[in-house]
Amino acid sequence: MRKGLRLFLIVVALLWCAATVEAQKKKVPRIGFLSSTSATTAARNLEAFREGLHEFGYAEGKNIVIEYRWAEGKLDRLPELAAGLVSLKVDLIVVASGQAIRAAKEATTTIPIVMAVSGEVVETGIIASLARPGGNITGMTVYSPEVSGKRLELLSREAFPKVSRVAVLGDPTAPAHPLEWKELRAAGRSLAVELQFLEVRSPNPDFKGAFAAATKGRAEAFLTLSPPLMAFHQKEIVALVAKSRLPAMFHQRGFVDGGGLMSYGPDLADSFKRAAIFVDKILKGAKPADLPVEQPTKFELVINLKTAKQIGLTIPPNVLARADKVIK
Predict the structure, then answer these.
(1) Alpha helices of 161-290 — where are they, by DSSP H?
(2) 237 and 272 together in one domain
(3) Is the pLDDT of residue 74 over 90?
């Protein structure tokens, strides 16, 4: 009797172990995706992220689940959205903006956070350093203030060499602003270009007032700094620039896809795709603190030739030849 009971218990234990192993095999990772914008705005970058996951064998809805949370430009919603993802006990959270990073960081210190795109994360204390981020955050950064000078050079020396007065649209309350503005002023002195700063601030930026000031200051071209405020008002900015019929250099490709003239900066889609590398490593057991934050390796010059023709501007052939993408 005892022998039979012992055998029964052994069989039960073996079956339980087998069931546990099978359950672990079938466990589908669940990740959160937190963004300040909308699914429509982020469509190109989101597709790149999914492509990156696919290269590691992840198929959404099959062997991985993604919980999307979109703030739709309403930044005050981010803390609540981040907290909601934490309550779901997701395996990690992918964040797609600086504000989303801060919201996720405040919501959890244990769930891994992967930055698909980020700004000045060291300067603002989000991570300890790029090489050793520490804590539960790692991923990609596209922060490169020196690119501001290159944008000015492309705009005022290569594309439109007669330009000598450039109006710069920026938000002085944004963490990235001081370093970008410093780099831009140094470039302006080197290129003998006079800069006029157009100040716009959250939460109620006066873009019409800023452009009126540019007209009064006899601006000959426009350039945007990279604070996220600009991305939330992309359509309005592009429309105001078009109305001025002046050349403009933007910091993100999305402005050019939306009708702006030209942009130069890190390829955000590439950053989102590379974020999948971090997701895969963490799901396989790596700790965020041990994964160095990576910087952009791919930059792109995008030109909207259709817009140039509409406002009566001519892009030099040598600049067009250098463009990574020309919209016709």
Answers:
(1) 177-191, 207-216, 229-232, 234-244, 253-257, 268-283
(2) no
(3) no
